[in-house]
Amino acid sequence: MQEELVSRSDGALAHVEGLRHGVLRFQRCTSCARAQTLARYACSGCGKSTLVWEDSNAQGNVVATTTVTRAPSEAFAALAPYVLVIVELDEGARVMGHGAKGLRIGDRVAATYFAHGERTLLRFVALEG
């Protein structure tokens, strides 16, 4: 599903709302087809502003992992220690999220979602098989 980015002032709203509804979204450039995460005003590949939001299949491969033992703020202190991973989604974009303990680089994962305070956060878990 594609959703035109109607207002350039909405920033990450499409992404954040997607998480609330259990949908992982990313931007795709209609000029060069590059996929990217975060809300940007221009394509990180070609620089054009021809971006649309797409829903991901929410699966990919772990490309980096780390364990956070000291939370960056009080808002995340209750979660520490926690695993963060960078996942290259099947669509090509890379996204950072929480990860299940024991995930390794190269693992095939799927996105899940969890509430933390007022936020909905992303957590990746290993796919079976």
UniProtKB/TrEMBL annotation:
Ranges for domain ChsH2 rubredoxin-like zinc ribbon: 17-51
Entries under Pfam families matching the protein: OB_ChsH2_C (PF01796), zf-ChsH2 (PF12172)
Domain ChsH2 C-terminal OB-fold: 53-112
Protein name (Swiss-Prot/TrEMBL): OB-fold protein
Organism (species): Paraburkholderia unamae
